[in-house]
């Protein structure tokens, strides 16, 4: 028996249907208004081909009645949002959207919206998750999701090219994409000479402000042939696939300049493996996990792993390894622990905050290696506060504490200059007191050959 | 039949004719250039890894997929 417990907080804009929770299962209702599209997509094999090519999330038809059809999509362990993607992830999500639009067009359909939230990452690849985004193509009509594609995908990517992938954070403020006018104003004037950027952004911005006062929708909409629309899609595709970022990594080559030797590196890896193994963990999150190096030491022991890092390059590098090795159980994304993604959109719940999503994910193990000194010394966060943060979603916490003598800590402390005495609290005793408020200390071990200590905490 | 549940932006609908024209010129010249380079043996045929096209192999021979 299907129970509609509560509808999904982000699923209300499209009248075609909505998502709802049936206890633990997320299902999708299709309203009669969308039956013709749904049946045609099913009969013509569009769904089948897209699913077979791993472009669209697979679903099963759960029930059919005159009032509604219910489908159940395959469960995705964790949903990441566009402002949490690295450059490469963003790019792949954009290309996926264009690829699906081109295919849909060849089958007599279009994507009726091109929201970046239609895509997420699953089994190492981007995947389209809005099964009801398709509509019939009407001969000669322009792509009505075109502007959305520009504000959600093309614009942010071009901005990232010139300003770094931090611009993706702007999507937290603009849930329906960065306004075209703003994108245009933020780009260097030389982009007006680009035969792709000029029409798709600068000219679009001009046309949008020119026609913004057509309140009665009176102006006749231009016709556009299918061939012309294909040209737009293909030229955007070609341009985006060649986009690269010109920004060097904060941590990208971190492991080549670590302050401990290979032996200590291996000791740390063995220790982690030995601690994780008996837990029979299903889900693990490595916060500040760089390119996934340490998470990979336990990859065969855990069903699903999240690796976050503040550095988008490390996330991209992780993604590259995941895709090259066809790893399906690791999900990388960008996260600044000092400012995790907030809940945004209507009611502040349309896109859940990172902490709420992590609570739902409920990892069996949380790892925070070589992170506490950054939180404490760069972020000035007291131990008790960071312990509170981890306790919100963690059961077991493996946390590494670099002592004051560690060269990274020394360098962070030296940078405090005359305020260095304000950080005398950075020591093991204070750390243990702070974390003791939320966790029970189970194990503690020095990493031989380093000035670091590993702690194993369980939530109180 | 078409239900516009969000405003597609009128300017965006009009501008697509210009965008498409520019894209057409670009794609045409790119293809011509590529063909010329192929003829002169300067490049090899690219593999389809990054291709925009969806693989539509006939799968009638395959055993039943679970997605139906």
Question: Could you explain the architecture of this structure?
Answer:
The complex is a heterodimer of chains A (460) and B (68). With 460 residues, chain A is of the alpha/beta class. Chain A contains 14 helices and 16 strands. Chain A folds into 3 domains: 6-73; 82-241; 254-459, Rossmann fold (3-Layer(aba) Sandwich). Helices cover 35% and strands 18% of the residues of chain A. In chain A, strand 4 and strand 5 form a beta hairpin. In chain A, helix 3 packs antiparallel against helix 7, helix 4 (146-163) runs parallel beside helix 5 (180-186) and helix 11 (372-378) packs parallel to helix 13. The longest helix of chain A is centred in the N-terminal third of the chain and has 20 residues, at 87-106. Chain A is globular. In chain A, 43% of the residues are buried. Chain B is mainly α. Chain B has a domain at 17-41. Chain B has one helix at 10-39. The chains are: A alpha/beta (460), B mainly alpha (68). At the A-B interface, helix 2, helix 3, helix 4, helix 6 and helix 7 of A face helix 1 of B.
Notable traits:
heterodimer; A: 460 residues; alpha/beta; Rossmann fold; five-stranded antiparallel sheet; globular; B: 68 residues; mainly alpha; elongated
